[in-house]
Each structure stands twice: as C-alpha cells, then as structure tokens.
Design goal:
about 130 residues, alpha+beta, globular
C-alpha cells in the first residue's frame, strides 16, 4: 500500500498533470535537490524546454531511485521555469514526457517563474520530496 493518498475535490477545477493535495503516512522522507538538464559532466544539455525538462525530470527520478523510491512516491514537485509562457505552450508535450517517465500518480505541483537559474543555459529546474514506507 502506498504511503500517499491524492486528493482532488470535486469543487475544485479538475487537475491536469498534478494533484490538489497529497497526504502522506510513510516513515521516510526524501528531499530532492533541484535538478536541471545537467549531464554527467555538469554541462546543460538540450536546447528546447521539452528537451531540458525531460533530462531534468530523469535526473530527479534517478536521485529518487538511488534513495530507494519510485515516481509514485513523489508527494510534491516544484518546477522553476525561466519562461512560464513557453512552459504553458509546451504543456501537452511536457505532460507526455512526465507520463512516460513518471506515470500518472501525480504529486502536488507548482510552476514558478524565475528570472534565471544557477546555470545560465538552464530553462527549467525541478525539486521535490517523496515519502517512502
């Protein structure tokens, strides 16, 4: 049984690609550092937002797996985007990437517009936390 329960009340707008609330009853928390589209050599890869999002999400999930978790254990993810309008334009494609890599157990999420990220070339960064049994 998963330690997470997703809540999407009927009186709120239907969630698309996120859950309105997530309750956790697990015993281990995993705090995931912000991940961009850095490769093993510390270089930003990908020119487009979708390319960078895919690598950043893969990096986040690799850290989670190393800590003993899986995508279904994600309770919260925050996406920091340098161009929110570009993020919205690619929302359907980003959703397909998310479902392919992480499935349909959506965490509580937020997208935050930022002026820039640590690496000038980075367009998106993801961080979050997971709850494990």
């Amino acid at each position: 049984m998963t330690p997470l329960h997703r809540h999407n009340p009927a009186e709120l707008s239907p969630p698309t690609g996120f859950s309105h609330a997530v309750t956790a009853t697990g015993t281990r928390l995993v705090f995931l550092a912000g991940q961009t589209s850095l490769d093993r050599d510390g270089k930003v890869v990908g020119e487009t937002l979708p390319e960078q999002f895919e690598t950043a999400l893969a990096n986040l999930l690799a850290a989670l797996r190393h800590a003993g978790g899986s995508p279904a254990d994600l309770a919260r993810v925050t996406v920091y985007a340098t161009d929110v309008a570009d993020y919205r334009r690619h929302a359907h494609e980003l959703g397909r990437i998310w479902r392919r890599l992480a499935g349909r157990d959506y965490p509580a999420m937020a997208v935050i517009g930022v002026v820039r990220l640590w690496d000038d070339q980075a367009r998106v960064e993801l961080d979050g936390f997971a709850v494990l049994d």
